Amino acid sequence: MSEAIAREIDRSHMQVSDEIAIQITQMNKWYGTFHVLRDINMTVNRGERIVICGPSGSGKSTLIRCINRLEEHQQGQIIVDGTELTSDLKNIDKVRSEVGMVFQHFNLFPHLTILENLTLAPIWVRKTPKKEADEVAMHYLSKVKIPEQAHKYPGQLSGGQQQRVAIARSLCMKPRIMLFDEPTSALDPEMIKEVLDTMIELAEEGMTMLCVTHEMGFAQAVANRVIFMDQGQIVEQNEPKEFFNNPQSDRTKLFLSQILGH
Amino acid sequence: MKATSAPFVRREMLAPAAPPITEAGAVKWLRENLFSSPLNVILTVLGVGAVVYLVSHIAPWMLRGVWNAGSLSECRQIIEARYGEGVTGACWALIRERWPQYLFGFYPSELYWRPVLAFVLMLVAIAPVLFDALPRKMLWFALVYPAIGFWLLWGGSVWVPVMALAGFGVGYGAAKIVQPIAGAILGGIAAVLAPVLWWLFLSGPAAETLQSVLPIALQEVRSREFGGFILAFTIGFTGIAFSLPLGVLLALGRQSDMFIVNKLSVGFIEFIRGVPLITLLFTASLLLNYFLPPGTDFDIILRVIIMVVLFAAAYIAEVVRGGLAALPRGQYEAADALGLDYIKAQRLIIMPQALKISIPGIVSTFIGLFKDTTLVVFVGLLDPLKGITDAVRASTDWKGVYWEPYIFVGAIFFIICFGMSRYSMYLENKLKTDHR
What we know:
Oligomer: heterodimer
Strand content of chain B: under 5%
Structural class of chain B: mainly alpha
Largest sheet of chain B: 2 strands, antiparallel
Mean pLDDT of chain A: 91
Strand content of chain A: 15-25%
Radius of gyration of chain B: 29 Å
Largest interface: A-B, 27 and 22 residues
Helix content of chain B: over 70%
Shape of chain A: globular
CATH superfamily of the largest domain in chain B: MetI-like
Radius of gyration of chain A: 18 Å
Helix content of chain A: 25-40%
Order of helices and strands of chain A: EEEHEEHEHHHEHEHEEHH
CATH topology of the largest domain in chain B: MetI-like fold
Distance between the termini of chain B: 48 Å
Mean pLDDT of chain B: 88
Low-confidence stretches of chain A: none
């Protein structure tokens, strides 16, 4: 799986600063009576690239969805960029406009063209003039290498192209943190590479990233920390080299042997 | 067989040949569509037979029709003189003679220009709503048209509709003043409350005052004088215009997490859908009078329109709810994740898609609403189908005429409803972006 990452990574901008981007303390979440997230404690510094992995149902998606309040936590504290997430709508809007999110199923707006998908939030949330929003959108479309698709509809694009559009759409809001929720899980193998390339470029520019993914090649290449979750808890976290070569917990070893053992 | 496995190389490519006659053109079409199996052959023969039978009986009757006559007996004489003893034919002369009555009911004949002008302006008003190639500025006319149409149809002081329109200005002004001081929610409440108070208490006296200062008025026409197709159009189009927004709000209410809003919407929708429209119309025409203070003259057409709007809105709410349910949750999440608030997400992301999915259902509801306008005959209004026809048949000249008025009114309804149906297909096609 690491053949997806064929090139040399430019690490000159990948610096982790001391500034705290996300602080999660003693966070608990239930779905009804089911305890999905248990005592999560986690600090993310600006510039970190974190990969979160774990078996399905381990709560990894729920965890990153709590960070922009797509899911509500019931106990504990989540502070994003100095703003605490509570039921206060103003805080939620503030956090959401600074945190970009990329979904497994892209979730592009099918009734709008690619360009309109990209400019919608800048125009309506940030109140950017349309002309400027268009320019920014074209800039990011070139960055994800599909400027020629600007006037098509999402349904006319391949899965990989759609996911790159989704990444560009988030970037148009100039987020300080990007969340990726299994961005390559719905893609054909050939398209995974083009999406990972885009994500690597983003990492090289120093973006703070949290990725739920099973692309271990990506984790080894760009992550500075890998978090392994099981049953709603953080079981193990370490820098990638140690994590893959020298896992400590039995659960991690089992998981790694299952996903790497072929 | 050894020969089959011998090495072989083709030196010349075969040119394409014409297909056999059974595989092309009309023959192929007939075989595939009409005579593909014994059952299909039988059905084809039976179907053609039925069509021939019906047409051979109806067409001559229609074609023998008489367009120029003063009464039914005159019609019959002409047909018998032309085609011989005992032959029957349609008497279209009735429609020719009673045409104004079918269109305008008992609207004063010297004022026919007003409903005609109102109709033409209505077409101008709905054009930019239906076709987005037209300049968007025309939408302003669509917004003020209800007041113009009202004034032309009912007449009276021009200041009544003007002051009614001013209510929207009052709402806008109230929101502008309150919002910076008290926040968005109170601003929204002010935007609704201020115009309601204005309409209830101030717009009437204001219109009277202005009328006494600057009298501009058209001759007043009472609702009871309305009839025929202007009645059907007035109720039908007003119903369509107001039931869609109300239906959308109800659908959103039914989806809402807010307990009271949710339960009120559900209760309203289920109640209205569970009751026949005629019950609501009777309520409007009879029962409301018991609840209102004696002497209040609450216009009968207005009451009927309110009931028709409520009725259609309940159906539209369910159709739109279906459209909302068809949207993947990811659309809501993507809108949330981009920081769009509820209203913007609904307006820009959710509703455009949900309404697109709901177009066939919405248009079906509109078609039903338009045809249901004939039910106003039960509250004493002269609808074109029964009200006017009964009035026509009560005259000595046209006593005994039966098919012709119903065929005529049915044909007009068909043309309009078919038009709506075709428009809905055009719209679906135009909004198709999924390229499946």
